[in-house]
Amino acid sequence: MNLKLVINIVILVLSASALSSRGEDRHRVVIHSLTGDTVISYENSYALVIGVSDYKYGWQQLPNALRNAEAVAEALKRRHFNVMTLFNPTGSELKAVVDSLAVRTGSEHDRFIFYFAGHGETVSDSKGVERGYIVPVDAPNQKKYLDRFLSKAVSMQDIADAVRGLSAKHVLFLFDCCFSGSILSHGWSEPGINHERFNRPARQFITAGAKNEQVPDNSIFTYCLLAALEGNADLNGDGCMTASELSVYIRDNTLFRSKSSLHPQYGRIHDPHNNHGDFGFLIDLPKAKPLNQLRKEVTIAVENDTTFTDSEKVPLPDFRFTYIPAGRFNMGSPVSETGRDDDEGPVHRVKIKPFYMQTTEVTQRFWKSVMGYNPSFFKAGVLPVEQVSWNEVQVFLKRLNEIDPGRGYRLPTEAEWEYACRAETTTRFPWGDDEGYYSLDIFAWIREGADGRTHSTGQKRPNAWGLYDMQGNVFEWCRDWYHDDYYGAPEDGSVWVSPVGEYRVHRGGSSVMTSWEYNARRSRSAFRSRSKPASRHYDLGFRVVKERK
Questions:
Q1: Which of 345, 358, 379 lies closest to 470, judged by CA?
Q2: What are the strands, taking DSSP E only, across 82-128?
């Protein structure tokens, strides 16, 4: 590789004026709040992706490091980043590229990502101060040849010094390796959009693990990063993923997948002037109609009013609620229950506050009245809406609360859903244990589900609290992250938010394409299922709850 060429390429990639003079398209990224306000606008998005696998002198080979780097590069390109890749660099090449970051290019309206997959190392100097290093392909093992190692490896101090000259407002370092160092300020942040943080500079980092931890070649860190970039780490459903949210998502999922053998690190590079902001990613969601336009087209009334305006008046039986009284119940299933799964235990006592639950699943007609489009695979206004991700549902709920404020519309927690489904019963189904599934077709679209489609809401018999289709038809999103057992679950019916998982919970329903026997077992009150927050399925919808009448 020509060293001068490497430096020139990096400078070119980071130079907004150079890109403009070459006539290349720059993709301006604007992140909005769910109310439509602009949170931040990035004029340019850059990334430097480095992968090192073919180590020569005493280091374990990492054949997947290049694959991981290539996958991250492609994912960032889909997120509208201008990406430069550098594979198997020598020490001089790596240092030259890092030094080139100090060229003051771009503008304060830009963002920049530095990703490295390879070995990391922690070295203590003569005063006992720890310094973190990323290791190029030709660096020897530091335990045998420390001086030669230091002449080849690149320290976090070198990277921090170089980045101080970068004009980009937000810089995020992603290290798929393990090390520590005094230049790093550690700590975890609460996830979410903070408008003030977006307006401030940021120099943030996330590493795959702490010092002396061995990162597997089959990277858990990058697996979680790629899932996050697909939209699965918007922890509060506000339409934006921050670096703070990304760090929590990676931490909790890496801890779980590594069985606590890896402890990702998150923090900021010590810099009093660049230490308070937050890096932002836009979550890809279908574009809904502007709310002011919908307000002119649609009148939505709740409770007993059935007014609906969308070029004609049609009733809204799908947007009525029933009162769910406060109470206590045993959540989960006993080990003796026929057809149970291991994630349904242990059975635990939960206290539930009163709330209101929609009597049916949200229909396509109602979704379209709020969002202005219909994403469903099976089209008809009276059918339940499906192919809506958990993230999209958060947008729907935000808009609904703006259209009809003061009622507290949201998804049910998993505990609220099971409590409402059971309706004070303790059996497999709300109507009894029904070991032979003789009554299932009275209450749920299961046997008929073999025809491979969804069905109109509210056509089967409801449970004792007036809720339709809690079994059968489509699955229904809940607020919670999925955990594979109930150890540590909230006992007050609240949403289970920590630790963050890879999947969100959905309940009830049945697959429109699988066998009757399979769906029948999955229709039990305690049955649990899950999908990634960005997933869309043609048998997955939701129903709404509200906190106030």
A1: 358
A2: 82-87, 110-117, 120-124
Q: Name the one residue in this structure whose structure tokens are 């694959």.
A: 67
Q: Which CATH superfamily is domain 317-546 in?
A: paralog of FGE (formylglycine-generating enzyme) (3.90.1580.10)
Phi, psi (degrees; rounded to nearest 5) at 268:
-135, 150
Query: Fold for domain 3-17+25-282?
Result: Rossmann fold (3.40.50)
Token pair listed for 274: 């660049």
Which has the closest alpha carbon to 182: 204, 157, 207?
Answer: 157
Torsion-angle region of 92 (φ positive above 0: left; ψ -120 to 50: alpha; else: beta): alpha
Report the alpha-carbon distance of residue 82 to residue 27 in Å, rounded: 9
Per-residue pLDDT band for 199 (boundaries 50, 70, 90) equals: confident
How many whole angstroms separate alpha carbon 465 and alpha carbon 25? 57
Residue 21: strand, helix, or coil: helix
Q: Which residue in this structure is represented by tokens 């439509």?
A: 36
Residue 394 has phi, psi (to 5 degrees) of -65, -35
Pairing of strands 540-541, 472-481: parallel
Please tell me the predicted confidence (pLDDT) of residue 159.
Answer: 86
Whole-angstrom distance, CA of residue 393 vs CA of residue 482: 17
Collapsing DSSP to helix, strand or coil, 418 comes out as: helix
> Is pLDDT of 21 > 50?
no
**Cα distances (Å, whole numbers) of residue 323 to 16, 133, 405, 420:** 58, 59, 19, 10
Tokens representing 472 are 């059968």
Q: Where are the domains of the chain?
A: 3-17+25-282, 317-546
Instruction: Label residue 342 left, alpha or beta by phi (over 0 means left) and psi (-120 to 50 means alpha).
Output: alpha
Query: Residue 97 corresponds to which tokens in the numbers above?
Result: 């590229």
Instruction: List helix spans (H) across 280-413.
Output: 291-297, 364-371, 390-403
Q: Give the pLDDT confidence of 348-373 residue by residue, as tens digits.
A: 999 999 999 999 999 999 999 888 89
Nearest to 167 by CA among 106, 123, 120: 106
* pLDDT tens digits, one per residue of 367-393: 998 888 999 999 999 999 999 999 999
Structure tokens at 232: 């699965």
